[in-house]
Amino acid sequence: MSGVRGLSRLLSARRWPRRSFTGTRVFMFGIVERISAQYPVVDHEFDAVVVGALRAAFGLSEAEFDTACVTKLFPTRSHTVAAQVGINAALGNMEGDNWRWHFYDTVKVSDWLGDQDAIHYVTEQAPTAMVEVMGGSRTEDGKIYQRAFGRQSLKFGKGGQAHRCCCVADRTGHSILHTSYGRVRQDTYRSLSSPLCIITWTAFPPATRGR
């Protein structure tokens, strides 16, 4: 993967047009031309730059790529926090479960129009993914809490309602995002917020090497 140069050169004092045409609309805006004299310009180089998708940035870092994750908001304010209900995964913490039953339910509810290869992969890998990112509600014996939700069933629709939805009360997305961001802080990756560009980026050096 080739190197990707950081976009901080956008802060240079280059002259930009004061008028932009897009179809039938005209946008007027002002330009600050002395900005480079006030703010130092620093170039950064990475193997990969990810826009959003914090977990994707983790994956690249774990594969030993020097990675940056860029977002317009502070990471813990991303839209993931709005997810409330939960995520289905055949963990079997409340009763016996099997990813094949989850696969069957997902294909059925898609009216057999879903990509079955993709559904196969997602339902088979969901338990591992949930153990990684779910830091929320637990049962009395410390397992991830799961509740009945939607049309999830056991034994290919013949075993009754499945308790398959992993959740953290009504703030599942909030918990997942904070768990992931806490992992960034734990590994002491560097981060930078720029009010000027309204951009936040977090760098993921290949620090997992040897773990």
From TrEMBL:
The keyword Cell inner membrane does not apply. Residues 47-186 form the FAD-dependent oxidoreductase 2 FAD-binding domain. InterPro entries: FAD-dep_OxRdtase_2_FAD-bd, FAD/NAD-bd_sf, SdhA/FrdA/AprA. GO terms for molecular function: electron transfer activity; flavin adenine dinucleotide binding; succinate dehydrogenase (quinone) activity. It holds the Pfam family FAD_binding_2. Keywords: Flavoprotein, Oxidoreductase. GO terms for cellular component: mitochondrion. GO terms for biological process: mitochondrial electron transport, succinate to ubiquinone. Signal peptide: none annotated. Coiled coil: none annotated. This is FAD-dependent oxidoreductase 2 FAD-binding domain-containing protein. The lineage of its organism: Eukaryota, Metazoa, Chordata, Craniata, Vertebrata.
